[in-house]
Amino acid sequence: MKIPKRIQPLVEEGLVDDVLRQLMSGKEASVYVVRCGDDIRCAKVYKDVDKRSFKQAVQYQEGRKVRNSRRARAMEKGSKFGRDQQEEAWQNAEVDALYKLAAAGVRVPEPYGCFSGVLLMELVTDSDGVVAPRLNDVVFSKEDAIRDHASMIEYAKLMLCAGLIHGDLSEFNVLVDDKGPVIIDLPQAVDAAANNNAVWMFARDVNNMTNYYSQFAPELANTQYAKEMWALFEAGELTPESVLTGEFAESEHIADVDSVLEEINAAREEEQERLQRIVDANSEEI
Question: What's the predicted TM-score (pTM) here?
């Protein structure tokens, strides 16, 4: 096929030899099957920020660290340079997550680098070389659903131990090859410890997987893996070796809302008194 404009620089640099076909077009990127020497890989071309339909990007980026102080200031101010840097950070987040999760034992496509907004990575196929289907296109037996659900719960645990949450995990961004599920699409990966939305994003990811597989194995619907894992994570007790049961006992302790509100009001009054003392002190100096 005709080489897309965004992939042309990679062809000129010798990173890509040919573009074979378009594989898919999603809310944040288009993916092409490309030939790199003797290897068949895929090239994920990120769409420009004004053409992406992915919502609430800021919500996902909360807590991400930017080492370069100049870049961080520019990103906060929203200048053109800052916006460019924000976009580059969005794209590089997926590469960083892929390397980090692969090292943690999570099955993800092998990345080969991000060049000018194009991510080169492994093309996930079955043993015959056919592109692996998405999870939503696969019909399972009860036994296979239970097995693959267990794999996804294990990957969710390993991701959380590595400090990351997928943030948008569903049956549409998991591939299934001969060895089981492979997680894809990670530009919105969330910092589990630094993002205020982490807990509900993690619960949504895990529950999406449970809801899908429970179509084929109804007994999975009653499991509580998200709550179990998050409780262990918050307590600092979650490790890659943690054995999960899928059970979670809700706390029967009833929060004393009135006492909490009293403490908040007391703290507010104390702060107001402190500020008034500063004002009074400054007035006396004058």
Answer: 0.77
